Amino acid sequence: HTRPVIFSGMQPSSDSLHLGNYIGALSQWTQMQSSFDAFFCVVNLHAITVPQDPAELAERTRRTAAQYIAAGIDPAQSTLFVQSHVPAHTELAWVLNTLAGFGEASRMTQFKDKSQRQGADAASVGLFTYPMLMAADILLYQADSVPVGEDQRQHVELTRDLALRFNHRFGETFTVPEAQIQKGTAKIYDLQDPASKMSKSAESEAGLVKVLDAPSVTRKKIMRAVTDADAEIRFDRDAKPGVSNLLTIYSVLTGRMVESIESEYDGRGYGDLKKGLAEVVEETFAPVRERTNELLDDRAELDRLLAAAADRANDVAGRTLARVYDAMGL
Ligand code: ADP
Ligand code: NA
Question: Which residues does L-tryptophan bind (predicted)?
Fold first, then answer.
């Protein structure tokens, strides 16, 4: 390869991506795609580790892919594909399941969190083996780095351990990937609960800004965002988490320094800041929403793009899997 390889993905577990996904993942990916040989995956096999409605899953998979493209992932430049279109993911995951220790897998904090939330008996074995599928996703493309949030660090560590173990036992086969933890990337918080990160798993959607929502819905959510009583527009993450979150979003979406926004709104009320922010968000999301809807109106074209990407992904992944099987005597 001439360019380093990156792999990243998101689950199709919602009708619309949210502002956190957009700022923390999607907009980062679009900036990276010209410097890397990038594989961006809609990880639908990960989504079924918790119960899914089949029709809804199919729809959400298309919508997620459409939003990637609409936000700027160029299917001619990056390989944007759906995980289940590439059988090597599940095949390599099985191999990695046989290499991973039960104790090692049991230490994954995401499994502990998610299984606790569902109740130990309700949690699937798939939820337990999820990290080995994620390792397969990454290793099949010989990824050099994996842009992920802090919460995925442990899974990437496991991926590295499995790659090193395989290479040691069966001969050099995998690139050992680095986690590229998005340090400079702003974390976006829930508008109603600025102590918690904005997440599709939030109990209420009142503080969740969605890319595909109607502008009036988003505007209402922003106007109702939690602030505080002292009416001062100043960034202070600890003392003024609500206002600081609004300023962060404003700053990231406009590329302006927080200080410059603070001085623009100096002496004005929270209502003005919120109105301004609602406009900024709408300017950002309007083109993404329009393009997503165009893509969803032409299903055949979207499916064709995804099929072409799956061909490329199958080609690369299939070559890695063949080396793995060969090395193991399979
Ligand atoms: P959610 O928390 O809504 O389930 P995911 O865990 O599926 O989101 O995250 C998908 C991607 O979006 C990851 O790369 C993650 O780091 C990023 N992301 C999610 N929520 C936020 C947030 N509130 N702020 C910044 N980035 C986020
Ligand atoms: Na999540």
Answer: 137
